[in-house]
Specification:
single chain; about 270 residues; TIM Barrel; nine-stranded mixed beta sheet; 10 helices; globular; disordered N terminus
Length: about 270
């Protein structure tokens, strides 16, 4: 009798197992992380991230199986309408601080992660001590890893780092504003391209000012940009993402890296 019950229990298990709904496929999102300066010790202002916290961030991404990608891979996802099988992150840095080469780069190489760096080109032209030089930009952008890849990409943070939308409202002259944007966006792009391999196709808006503005978008497209990274908080679904209004999440001095799960795991 016991053997018969065991037999029927096995049959029931097989039937219910076959009829059970399959586990849902987890579709990944992409989040763009925004850094500025990486400080050696405790951060001295809100826009700095200590080197210890930065390394902890990279460790967190590894432990959580969040794959670090570049804008080129995001472009392929958006163009193909494909969703990654796991969550992804893009690491970005604004302004052009010298800590990128002394503190960020060694850790990125240690953890085998790529990154995009947005340059405020006026600061390089003025040879400010706290900013990268063109020689250092050339070194970082031409650096080739053991797999023959160039992990560090440079984009534009404009020429003079001004509030683009505020300038539009103050000028109140569409033709003059278009000329101004060509200098800010095109001038910066030309300067950077003279020192890096490839083209500059990604723009980071200074202060996040002007996200979604049609004239700024038109100016970016006119000057060869494919992506505009904003300061609007959030993650993105590659199927519905707008390349010209990419959200991001700032990693500030007191940010808990775990906050990214709020955006990646939300419906």
């Amino acid at each position: 009798m016991q053997r018969l019950l065991t037999y029927f229990s096995l049959i029931l298990l097989i039937i219910t197992g076959c009829s059970r709904e399959p586990d849902p496929v987890i579709e990944g999102k992409v989040i763009v992380l925004m850094y500025h300066r990486i400080s050696e010790g405790t951060a001295s202002n809100i826009y700095e991230r200590s080197v210890a916290d930065f390394e902890a961030d990279l460790q967190y991404l590894k432990e959580q199986n969040i794959r670090v990608i570049g804008f080129d891979e995001l472009d392929e996802m958006i163009t193909g309408g494909t969703v990654p099988e796991t969550h992804c992150a893009i690491l970005t840095f604004d302004d052009g601080d010298h800590s990128w080469i002394t503190r960020a780069m060694p850790l990125l190489l240690k953890y085998e992660m790529k990154a995009t760096f947005f340059l405020w080109t006026e600061m390089i032209l003025l040879e400010r001590d706290s900013f990268l030089s063109w020689d250092e930009v050339e070194y970082m952008s031409h650096y080739m890893d053991d797999n023959g890849r160039l992990p560090f990409v440079f984009g534009s943070h404009t020429l003079y780092h001004q509030y683009l939308l505020d300038r539009k409202l103050a000028m109140n002259d569409p033709e003059a504003y278009a000329i101004y944007l060509d200098e800010e966006l095109g001038g910066s792009r030309n300067l950077i391209e003279a020192h890096i391999p490839g083209s500059v196709t990604i723009l980071s808006l200074p202060f996040g000012n002007g996200a979604g503005d049609p004239d700024i978008i038109a100016g970016a497209l006119r000057n060869g940009y494919k992506f505009i990274r904003t300061s609007e908080w959030g993650a993105l679904d590659p199927v519905t993402a707008n390349k010209l209004r990419i959200p991001s999440l700032p990693l500030l001095s007191d940010t808990n890296i775990g906050i990214i799960s709020t955006y990646l795991d939300s419906e």
